[in-house]
Amino acid sequence: MSYDCAIIGGGPAGLNAALVLGRARRKVIVLDNSQSRNAVTHASHGFITRDGVTPAEFRRIAYEEVLRYPSVAHQSIQVTDVRRAGNEFSITTEDGASVTARKLLIATGLREIFPDIPGLSEHYGRSLFNCPYCDGWELRDQPLIVVSGQPGVFHMAKILYNWSKDLIVATGGEDVLTIEQRELLASRNIRIIETPVTAFIGSAGKLQHVEFADGTQLKRSGGFIAPQLQPKADFQAQLGYEVTETGGIATSEMGKSSVPGIYAAGDASYVMPSQLIYAAAQGSKAAMSINMELTEEEFAGR
Ligand SMILES: Cc1cc2nc3c(=O)[nH]c(=O)nc-3n(C[C@H](O)[C@H](O)[C@H](O)COP(=O)(O)OP(=O)(O)OC[C@H]3O[C@@H](n4cnc5c(N)ncnc54)[C@H](O)[C@@H]3O)c2cc1C
């Protein structure tokens, strides 16, 4: 099958692009293996009209809307290979089948990598999160911990102070806070602990204690932890697009990559902040850019 555009990834970025392209009467296929980044959470926040829905419900509504447009197709499948084939792209899926498309939108999101701390996965998405704007409200005024050995830890603690004044910062002993930053945190009674966290202890996803390498346990009912982020799918070797310092696909404001015909949107282009509404907006912008490029080519007789 041949399409105007193949969209790899059906999160908010890919699906909003499909919506715009479907409404523009473009023949589009969304290839998605349904492993969105926020699947571990019980609720998505901060997207107007959808505040508090489960990630699964968000997707259900999105697919329902997108698939109303007859030129949009969807396959629940993993893309395993993408190549340029003349003026088009050839996209191969895990079942060995392939489709071709004139344009390609990569909206495959990010993978999170965490240190191997017992109890982390049981609490992540329930009482441990990564983004205060997404889940800070639910943890407001509770005793919280920020676990991060990354330079952004000071920023995270400062921001989180809006939601709770009872904060502990655990750096794992990494040298990520300046003397001035330590003093500023101390001036707000925010304790800094250098001893590494060794366990998150709680029940049914609700954090109760954090344990440290020296055996100490502190009562905390929630927290924020900074993951390492990595592209979920990497087609750079085959397609040769430029990536940014952080590993995302480098794009213009309208989602164009450095390779003609290839676009990226959402977490795949690693534009922060990583939020559903930003990803959807980037998908929309990329879709308009793709439609414009297709239109220009058609008017030029190519
Ligand atoms: C715990 C947690 C809570 C969050 N809470 C919120 C919140 O409350 N509000 C908010 O705005 N944001 C929240 N986020 C951030 C939000 O999840 C992301 O910003 C958003 O999902 C990015 O959308 P995306 O479309 O770029 O990527 P994703 O939603 O990750 O979608 C990418 C899709 O591409 C698919 N894919 C990847 N590789 C392939 C491949 N090779 N073949 C086929 N398909 C592929 C994936 O399976 C996935 O379905 C949260 C994130 C986490 C981790």
UniProtKB/TrEMBL annotation:
SUPFAM superfamilies: FAD/NAD(P)-binding domain (SSF51905). It holds the Pfam family Pyr_redox_2. Its cofactor is FAD. Keywords: Flavoprotein, Oxidoreductase. InterPro entries: FAD/NAD-bd_sf, FAD/NAD-binding_dom, Ferredoxin-NADP_redctase_2. Residues 3-283 form the FAD/NAD(P)-binding domain. GO terms for molecular function: oxidoreductase activity. The keyword Flavoprotein applies. Homodimer. This is Pyridine nucleotide-disulfide oxidoreductase. The lineage of its organism: Bacteria, Bacillati, Bacillota, Bacilli, Bacillales.
